[in-house]
Amino acid sequence: MAKKKSKKSTTKTKRVRRRTWDPVQVAEQYAPNVATAVGLDVLGLSEDQYVELLRDVLVSLIGDRVTKPKPETLVNAIKRNEKKVMPVVAAKLLEMIPEGKLTAEQLDFVMSYIGPLVIPFAQRLYREAKRLGADPSPLQAAWEEAWRLRGEPGPVGYCPKCGFRSVAPDGSCMVCGAVLDDEELRGAVEFDSKFKAFLEEASCSELKEALAKGSLYAGHASLHTAPKSKWDVEVLLRRADREALREALRLRCS
Fold it and tell me: Which of 7, 82, 102, 210 lies in the 20 to 30 Å Cα band around 133?
């Protein structure tokens, strides 16, 4: 009986393509020209500074590609993803340039593009704007948007000094650094209108608790006898407030 011929394996081993170039070196090589192509030459930096500014961004855009990209490929990637990339570039510029050394052009760039990354830089940017005679109000929209993207309401009150919604629980402003007095604090958190609603809507036990504690916590929409979020601001009650509480207790709870 004839033996069957064994079939030879036809499976071919796939060749794995490996990168033969260093993405960091490519990023550093391309950075100055890419900076010019996307309009960053207005920042007036040295070639080495442009390398520092864009190195990490370009490496991230290169990703794990095997084929070495052309400079225009990275330029187009930055332009397509401007809303994501430019805030990172603006934040990097602030890390590179010491406070007090930003030029007017650099500040204008940062204020235009910092966007959702503004929160940790807001106080410095406000000081820089004052130093350079620039209007800091364009930062307000970025400030509000940044809190929205964080998924939390953020500070309760509007600072009477700078106009930002930036009153911290300790009564200081997170942007301009002002420390609000009692009258300013009450106005910032709209205490009077919220207190009127509290007198009408609070339970008898809440009215008694507020009177006993001598303070109330202002949230975004109402007053509470205890903080309901880390942003609630404690407001000490005045004599007139305590008298109003006693009257509410007499009328509603006797």
Answer: 82
What DSSP string describes 204-231? HHHHHHHHHHTEEEE-SS-EESS-SSTT
170-180 tens-digit pLDDT? 999 999 999 99
Query: What are the residue ranges spanned by the domains of the chain?
Result: 20-80, 188-253
| DSSP alpha helix (H) spans, the chain | 23-37, 47-62, 71-80, 82-96, 104-113, 122-132, 139-150, 182-188, 191-201, 204-213, 239-253
Question: What would the two tokens of residue 77 be?
Answer: 């990637």
Does this model's pTM top 0.90? My answer is: no
CB 176 within 8 A of CB 161: yes
Q: Is 104 helix (H, G, I), strand (E, B) or coil?
A: helix
C-alpha–C-alpha distance, residues 164 and 144, integer Å: 9
Rounded to an integer, what distance in angstroms lies between the CA atom of residue 162 and that of residue 136?
9
- Distance (Å, whole) CA 167 – CA 229: 14
**pLDDT tens by residue, 98-128:** 999 999 999 999 999 999 999 999 999 999 9
AA letter at 214: G
